[in-house]
Amino acid sequence: MDIRTKVHASNLVEWARHRPEVVVLSADLTGSTEIAEFQGAYPDRFFSMGIAEQNMISFAAGLAREGYVPLVHTFAVFIYRQALNQIVSSVAYSNLPVKFFGFLPGITTPGGATHQAIEDVAVMRAVPNMTVLETGDATEVETILDPVLAVDGPVYVRMLRGEIPRLFSPAEPFALDRVRTLSRGGDITLLSSGICTEEAMRAAEVLRARGVGVTHLHVSTHKPFGDPAILEALASARHGVVTMENHTIVGGLGSAVAEVMAEHGLGKRLVRVGLRDTFAHGGSRPYLMRKYGLDAMALVRSIGSLVGQDLGIQEEELEAVRLEAVHSLAKVEAL
Amino acid sequence: MNATLSTPSRPGWVEAVARTAAGIRLRVLEHTVAHNGGYLSQACSSAEILSTLYLKTLRLGPSRGPRIPPPFPGVPGPGNHDYATGGAYHGLPAPDLDRFFLSPAHYALILYAALVEAGRMDPEGLAQFNRDGSTVEMIGAEHSPGFEMMGGSLAQTLSQAAGIALARKRRGDTGRVWAFLSDGEFQEGQTWEVLQAAAHYRLDNLGVYVDVNGQQCDGRTRDVMGLDPLDARIEAFGARAVTVDGHDPEALDAPARLARDGRALVVLCATDPCRGVPLLEQRRPKLHYVRFASPAEREAYRQCYETMRDEASRG
To answer: Mean pLDDT across the stretch B223-250?
Structure first.
């Protein structure tokens, strides 16, 4: 599998070159959010705001009112936990184009409960005027900035950093409110987001070999949640629906899917794979994914419970799956 | 009401500020009696500050807001193209003109009364105050006359004003950015965050007038959470603090004439929350919101209103 390093760092510099209205705000996590390169390239468009997120976010609103597009960078928890009132009253109510880049989603950090953003999608999804996005691979990190800028209003992005796999073809950029259809099958509909999609792809591959047909959708727009391909895939699932997210099962992708199913009267089972209304703790990503049931094995168990049989899949089988960047199976017009 | 105190040596605008301040108190008292409640003490403390700002200190263009405020246009959003802020009442922004943002949004009625007295809104607009479907809301919102932000959650307006000040500094605008704060907002951590940022970015185009009335919802500020020495604390954070008599128009305007020195300016206006309505003294220590305890109390305030009105009409 192709692994890319510090994708956002170089991409942002290139993207912002001819966009003088774009400014970047940092709360003392410049290297940690991959904006040191931007600071070096455009020092007059980089504002260090110190460890003071509430002021940073209201201050960004003031810049936005004067025609700038502030890209606020820090760890996700320090955005939506530290300054939710500022997000709501200074930015979201007024529908200002402040763009939030929240790093360390879910259990992607060994930093423990204070650093792990496990309920950010739930919180930000509930804020009117807010668009909520999540990156799942290098291609999405590389191509999310145009759609973020195009949104008329504030955007919250669950951002990845460091070493990131390329799961999706660079020819298929991030598209707002469009899912990626990664496989089709009639038994189970599986929706995954963020780093869970790589795990889900491994599981889906092995499940196919066992004769379980899986329609697998990758979700990168949490709000709005209006792609017709979602309802279509939910309606076609013979045994039921599984969601998988690096987030609490309360209020995130699983809840959004449950809302769609209930509103359309789809009387099917739904299994939500994610943090089961619990905080996590500090540890490595593989350890945390296994401990909290966010890995391919946990997904296989959930799907086994839906189809009503032990599928007899072993961990070695899942680990042996070789993943290459895929093209979406979605119809071209759906992009 | 203070016309008899004037002396020939005082400039004409000082007379006008006194008349305007009296008008603000009268209008807010009238509403308080009519609606059996209101933010009356804030009118008493801030009437000269707002009058001085509108008549003398601020450089604003003529109002472009409707003489009678329009109805609520719906909340802002990508689909609402009819939404307009209340900033139109402060005129068209221009590089050489000032901007003005009132932070404590519960001062809304006082700000509306000031707009009326300053000739920026018709008196009939006040009849919509706190009426369903109106923009003339009890707690001023972004669409309310004279407002451009959501200040109802305290301390956020100054941070936004600082962002605007930085943007204007980058553009080379000569106009300044002014904010009006209540002293209670210095209990919020965010206020100190923005002062440190204003010092870091040397935002001397940012100025703040603070109504230091020493009062808040629970009672006296010194009992709720003391702020003294506020001037020294502000200076320690890198801003320039100037303390003035908050009822003296010339003293209020003077700090704005100081040569800028790289620091944000904070004018601490020492005020009396009962000024002009001595009846309020009986309600100490709780002055934040007046809700009459009895018909007799309401009647006393009604008589006070009539006396003040008659004095004003005699000029």
So the answer is: 98
What average pLDDT does the structure give for chain B?
Answer: 95
Contacts of A44 in chain B (CB under 8 A): 170
Q: Which two tokens stand for residue A91?
A: 């930015």
| Cβ–Cβ gap A90/B149 under 8 Å | yes
B8 touches chain A (CB under 8 A): no
Domain range for B243 is 3-314
Q: Does the CB of A114 have a partner CB in chain B at under 8 Å?
A: no
The pLDDT value given to residue A39: 98
What ipTM does the predicted assembly reach? 0.93
- Residue B81's pLDDT band (cuts 50, 70, 90): confident
Q: Does domain A180-334 have CATH number 3.30.450.40?
A: no
Q: Tell me, what CATH number does B101's domain have?
A: 3.40.50.970
pLDDT digits 0-9 by tens, A142-173: 999 999 999 999 999 999 999 999 999 999 99
Cα B104 to Cα B157: distance, rounded to the nearest angstrom: 8
Domain A3-165: top CATH class: alpha beta
**Residues linked to residue B220 through DSSP beta bridges, in sequence order:** B215
* Local confidence band at A309 (pLDDT 50, 70, 90 cut-offs): confident
CA–CA distances in Å: residue B126 to residues A134, B47, B113, B138, B202:
47, 17, 7, 11, 39
| Residue ranges covered by each domain of chain A | 3-165, 180-334
pLDDT score, position B140: 96
Number of domains making up chain B:
1
Dihedral, B11, B15, B18, B24 alpha carbons, nearest 10: -120
Tens of pLDDT along B145-161? 999 999 999 999 999 99
Contact yes or no for B153 and A47 at CB 8 A? no
CA distance A74 to chain B (A): 17
H/E stretch holding A172 reads: none
Q: Which residues 137-176 of B are in CB contact (within 8 Å) with A?
A: 142, 148-150, 152-153, 155-157, 159-168, 170-171
